[in-house]
């Protein structure tokens, strides 16, 4: 870009700023971390930026008569200073890897995982970014570091989600001899990690340490990603009934939310389950005549829909129990269905076939040749696919779902409403 600029233009400053301060009504000198006088080009727009780090370098263009200390811009305050996230592999940004995550996806630490955006594996179960990454980006925050990364900067939030995590504690699965492919972490684990983290900040709960917890939660968005799908998946074909799993999983998730609210959480987003019958693995294992009106496995979709209906009712109870908190329900089930019903409008040509898999055929899926294995292949255009590896989604799909959430189409109350309430409190 610089090579194309005329050499006889006005001076400009190369500066490093926090992304929050790209627009500001404060004297701009207050936003500058450091600056270097270099040569020049004409007044123009700031380049687009990537919020994957706290601070980015930008080019500030000033006319020859401008003075840094008096230049003023319109400010758009960053709505939240941090995000704390929970959930399973749909939200995990690196708490597991090939050796520690679900054994069915033992190549997550290798390419092609991560190829689309990061261009290297990040232990995300996708070709690129997840919903939580797009949420962070939309709020001008850095991508959340995983809790298990001991050296990461966690001043802007932490991700406690674990791939393979269940809502129900691990002991139930051990008791029923259901541990072959199960990550031992559950919501109970994530809560213990979060509690430990809060105590390091001096926060025990809203009653015992009100000021410390207020400092933690007033500027924090709590994002509880989808949780519970693994509970059902791990018990398929076992003596544990779906009804038992539904009752226990919803209770554990509701109890988890209640504890977060008691600790002082004020702004909470809770995701429901997606239509799990539309995931390639389900379609691969269930007979073709078990399909619903959008081509997915009917019984599995009904299961996740029923789960969500009960879960939403529990969330409504919590809203009444904690009237000072704002709890948004993100309807993953209907957001996903909206995309399937309007796939071409969103740029998707493959609704059920995986981008990264093996065996070719209708689904390009074979559990014995998972994504990343020597026998697997990867499609040329992941953005045209909804399914990435049979269970997890492509960055393209996560981006569309996140847009539906963030713009309020499938959130109750709408996510923009949460932002407006937060803005009024500033």
TrEMBL record:
It comes from the Eukaryota. Pfam families: Lipase_GDSL. The keyword Hydrolase applies. Keywords: Glycoprotein, Hydrolase, Signal. InterPro entries: GDSL, SGNH_hydro_sf, SGNH_plant_lipase-like. CDD domains: SGNH_plant_lipase_like (cd01837). The keyword DNA-binding does not apply. GO terms for molecular function: hydrolase activity, acting on ester bonds. Belongs to the 'GDSL' lipolytic enzyme family. PANTHER family: LIPASE_HYDROLASE FAMILY PROTEIN, PUTATIVE, EXPRESSED-RELATED, ZINC FINGER FYVE DOMAIN CONTAINING PROTEIN. This is GDSL-like Lipase/Acylhydrolase superfamily protein. It comes from Heracleum sosnowskyi.
